[in-house]
TrEMBL record:
The keyword Endoplasmic reticulum does not apply. Residues 2-168, 178-352 form the EngA-type G domain. GTP 2 binds at residues 184-191, 231-235, 296-299. It comes from Enorma phocaeensis. The keyword GTP-binding applies. The gene is der. Associates with the 50S ribosomal subunit. Belongs to the TRAFAC class TrmE-Era-EngA-EngB-Septin-like GTPase superfamily. EngA (Der) GTPase family. It comes from the Bacteria. This is GTPase Der. GTP 1 binds at residues 8-15, 55-59, 119-122. GO terms for molecular function: hydrolase activity. GTPase that plays an essential role in the late steps of ribosome biogenesis. Keywords: GTP-binding, Hydrolase, Nucleotide-binding, Repeat, Ribosome biogenesis.
């Protein structure tokens, strides 16, 4: 999906704009794909054109000026690198600031379609002069908007979607290939792992164009099976100076996840599972990917204590994915790298699995008989029946008498019971509760 990034210094109204676009009729912001502290990612569509809106809004100015501008610079660079269209937001009331100029300078270098949005102009007719000031930034015609009131956002969206690249329809030579995304923080060892994989004598490798303009996928054939390693261009050849920016790797990982069946989360064992790993794993699961956790650089852990510490971070940070297999590897020595394939196959198979209605009914009977239920005053939750309504990942719809009685902990309870009954190792499952029509 094309990416529209919202950049600008703090407090100019980026988040308000994103929320505004979210609320503008037709632009549906589907469930937010994991809101991080610093950024949020939204699936939006306008007149049927889908795009991902990246809000870099939450970055708060740090006290030190230097660090502050460095963070703006990083954001702007990273956004420029990845985005198809950039929305550069400035504040019409404060006028042009030095920070705006810094951002503008960076954006000018990258030649991406950029809209200069002058925000907080609630009455553009009377505030023309304020608008003109912004021509000095040299990034095109300033457009007045009011993120708060919504003026100008419809026009803006029309122009934005007109500039989004066409999703080229290509013939997929390997329609049955499993999509595999290698995700994780910079330096975790993603490139090393990938190189090990393609360097293996057992792998037959070919490059193919990905579905988006600049993505290159690698098809790996192993024992007659095809795997599409998604968006490996950046992983194979570390080209840019932006590689170390977490944001960059995050956005790229996100794109890869979109097209993957299985996500391989590469964790640096000398660091353990970090908050960033946690976020990206969560995103992969939200997008319906199966998940395999690879504890890389295991060769560097000499002491038992260190190993335990890493496993402890897995337990603590990946509580939402206790079902994901965890493999200790070394991309450097090749230790256990060959084992990833069976884990990938297995997770993908579970993700595509179907459970027969009779087995589901048996499950429900057992749950009624031996399980807990929810009682609220006179009302008692009853599950009438359950049916599988989707795969990849397996999705089950339970028809119940009072869906509003459902609590998160009860959902988890039912999921755990299902996982204990059926084998869903490696895949997320989705449970929906509907009232019986
Ligand atoms: P990426 O940013 O995730 O692609 O990480 P790289 O593959 O570039 O690896 C970062 C650094 O870690 C490089 O210096 C690698 O040589 C090193 N590295 C990667 N995997 C391993 C491993 O399993 N063991 C050790 N000892 N070093 C590793």
């Amino acid at each position: 999906k094309p990416i529209v990034a919202v950049v600008g210094r703090p407090n100019v109204g980026k988040s308000t704009l994103v929320n505004r676009i979210a609320q503008t009729s037709d632009a549906i912001v589907h469930e937010s794909r994991g809101v991080t502290r610093d950024r949020s990612y939204h699936d939006a569509d306008w007149n049927g054109r889908e795009f991902t809106l990246v809000d870099t809004g939450g970055i708060e100015p740090l006290k030190s000026e230097d660090v502050f501008s460095a963070s703006i610079r990083d954001q702007a660079l990273a956004a420029a690198e990845e985005a198809d269209v950039i929305l550069f937001v400035v504040d019409g009331h404060t006028g042009v600031t030095e920070e705006d100029e810094t951002v503008a300078r960076l954006l000018k270098r990258v030649h991406k379609p950029t809209f200069l949005l002058v925000n907080k102009l609630d009455n553009p007719a009377r505030e023309q002069e304020r608008l003109w000031d912004f021509y000095s930034l040299g990034v095109g015609d300033p457009m007045p908007i009011s993120a708060h009131h919504g003026h100008g956002t419809g026009d803006l969206l029309d122009k934005v979607v007109a500039l989004l690249p066409d999703e080229t329809e290509e013939v997929d030579e390997f329609p049955d290939a499993l999509g595999v995304a290698i995700i994780g923080r910079p330096n975790a060892g993603k490139s090393s792992l990938f190189n090990k994989v393609i360097g293996s004598e057992r792998s037959i490798v070919s490059d193919v164009a990905g579905t988006t303009r600049d993505a290159i996928d690698t098809i790996v054939e192993r024992d007659g099976r095809h795997y599409r390693m998604v968006d490996t261009a950046g992983i194979r050849k570390k080209s840019t100076v932006y590689e170390n920016i977490e944001y960059y790797s995050m956005v790229r990982g996100l794109r890869a996840i979109d097209r993957a069946d299985v996500a391989l989360l590469v964790v640096d064992s000398t660091v353990g599972v970090t908050e960033q790993d946690q976020k990206v794993a969560n995103l992969a699961i939200e997008r319906g990917c199966a998940l395999v956790v690879l504890l890389n650089k295991w060769d560097l852990l000499k002491e038992e204590r260190e190993r335990e510490r890493v496993l402890e971070t897995v337990d603590r940070r990946l509580t939402f994915a206790t079902w994901a297999p965890v493999l200790r590897i070394s991309a450097l020595t090749g230790r256990s790298v060959e084992k990833i394939w069976s884990l990938i196959d297995d997770a993908a198979a579970k993700r595509a699995s179907k459970v027969s209605t009779s087995k589901l009914n048996q499950f429900l009977t057992d749950l009624r008989e031996f399980g807990h239920t929810i009682v609220d005053g006179k009302r008692r939750l009853r599950m009438h029946y359950v049916t599988q309504t989707g795969t990849k990942p397996p999705t089950f719809t339970f028809f119940v008498n009072h869906p509003d009685l459902l609590t998160d902990s009860y959902r988890r309870y039912v999921e755990n019971r299902m996982r204990a009954t059926f084998d869903f190792a490696g895949t997320p499952v989705r449970l929906r509760f509907r009232s019986k029509a």
